[in-house]
Amino acid sequence: MALTTSDPAGAPDRPELTPGPAAKPSLAPGLAASSGDSGAAARLTDGERLLLSLPSAQAVKAIGAALGLAVETERPERPFLITLTGELGAGKTTLAQGLAEALGAEAAVSPTFALANVYRGRRLVNHLDLYRLGERPLEEFFGAGLEECLDELCLVEWPDRLPDGFWPPERLDLFFDCRPPARRLGARPGDPAAAAVWRRTLSAASRLGFPIFNPET
């Protein structure tokens, strides 16, 4: 299996999150409610909830860091799967960078040409990019031994390159939408543990000042 490894000499302490640009926060269900962007949310298919407005790459990276710390708190030393869906350039790898760095690893890079990167910090992070899987994606996936990556914290870009029902239901699905007026990030937790991770991430986002919209209002 073609893997690239990031293994810094000694993992740093938990980082401070960098606040995003000033914005009036509006909180999602479970925190508070806002009707700020219900029209944009209605564009999504059922179950895909656009909640976070992320105006810059710095904001995406900050949310990746918040997500990493949330996983570290809610799922310590246990496998956890996060899928990342969005067009090229949406911010999937930038989010992975924030997550990996928050967990003490060196900066993440897109693993497109190697299929997988491994980052070693306070916790092992596997980062898969399935964009270049060919006409027999399942054969290529198992032939490269990529199923072993699911035994750790694992980020998967382009998860839809594999058939519906392939991924375990115990996961957190994240969706990027880059249509104007701003990039947005939504989530679909697959189980209570994933929901807890997402709630903690939303709490961090509200503290950082990122708008959070309720798509049901």
Could you characterize the architecture of this molecule?
The protein starts with a strand and ends in a 9-residue tail after the last helix. Helices cover 26% and strands 20% of the residues. The longest helix has 18 residues, at 57-74. The chain is built from five helices and eight strands. It has an eight-stranded mixed β-sheet with strand order 1-4-5-6-3-7-8-2, with helices on one face. Helix 2 (57-74) packs across helix 5 (192-208). Residues 4-48 have low confidence and may be disordered. It has one domain: 3-Layer(aba) Sandwich (Rossmann fold), CATH 3.40.50.300. The protein is of the alpha/beta class.
What labels would you give this structure?
single chain; 8-stranded mixed sheet; Rossmann fold; 217 residues; alpha/beta; globular
The shape, in one word, is globular
**CATH architecture level-2 label:** 3-Layer(aba) Sandwich
Which CATH class? Alpha Beta
Annotation, overall tally of beta strands? 8
Intertermini distance: 46 Å
The proportion of strand residues reads 15-25%
Give the class from helix and strand content and strand pairing.
Answer: alpha/beta
Oligomer description: single chain
The number of helical segments is: 5
Mean pLDDT score, rounded? 77
Q: List the strand order in the largest sheet.
A: 1-4-5-6-3-7-8-2
> Stretches where pLDDT falls below 50 for ≥5 residues?
4-48
Q: What is the domain tally? A: 1
Provide the gyration radius in Å.
17 Å
CATH topology: Rossmann fold
